[in-house]
Write a structure and sequence with these properties.
Length: 222
């Protein structure tokens, strides 16, 4: 092998090492920055809303579905929701959901349609307002009191047609009674609290600048 050929190989090897080091340096800087997370029931920082894309993907990207037919774990479903809505924070969300639960229960008992309209999705609001109006026509009044703390657990999370949805299981102790026009109790008991389990679905459009979630479905599992 001639000296010129050997020299060429040394030069090519040096260039290859240089390119590898440069590529590693470039990739090493592409770490990204985590999006600020805010309470979904609080007003966001306007500066963050103006500067940050609402639905930018996180660094990890979407969680790929398992190759088997087994459903995704709850953790994986929550991670998929965070991809669509990077501002989602489970701890802050549950705190806001507890507050919303108490406000909605009390507003429904009081017939406060103004409060309900701000917290419910349009379809569910129509159902609640119809129930309030029917109660008023019958002359009945609803007494509901929350006793003790309200427990809230995240049951499910998903993204459907671009909308993020979260199911919350609430367990509460409530005094629940209905009085007729004369004041007589026709349903429930005003002295003994009962345990009530509710499964509520909250939803929002992560592309919207409005950070607030709305209640879109309710259920009482057996």
């Amino acid at each position: 092998m001639g000296s010129n050929t050997l020299l060429d190989l040394v030069i090519f090897a040096a260039i290859a090492v240089f390119l590898v080091l440069r590529l590693r340096a470039v990739l090493g800087r592409r770490t990204g920055e985590e999006q600020p997370r805010a309470n979904p029931f609080a007003t966001p920082d306007p500066a963050f809303v103006d500067r940050a894309p609402v639905a930018a993907p996180t660094q990890l990207g979407p969680v790929a579905a398992a190759p088997s037919d087994l459903p995704l774990s709850l953790e994986a479903r929550v991670q998929n929701l965070r991809v669509a809505d990077p501002s989602f924070d489970e701890k802050h969300f549950l705190a806001g959901a507890k507050t919303a639960f108490q406000m909605i229960v009390q507003a429904f008992a009081a017939g406060d349609l103004g409060t309900l309209k701000t917290l419910l999705g349009p379809s569910l609001y129509n159902d609640f307002s119809a129930a309030v109006e029917a109660r008023n026509r019958s002359g009945h009044t609803l007494l509901t009191e929350l006793r003790g703390t309200v427990d809230a657990d995240l049951e499910d999370a998903r993204v459907i047609n671009g909308q993020t949805q979260v199911d919350i299981r609430f367990v509460s102790q409530q005094i629940h009674a209905v009085r007729d026009a004369s004041g007589a109790i026709v349903e429930g008991d005003t002295t003994q609290p009962i345990e009530i389990i509710d499964l509520w679905t909250f939803a929002r459009d992560p592309r919207s600048k409005d950070p607030n979630w709305q209640l879109v479905a309710t259920d009482q599992p057996n």
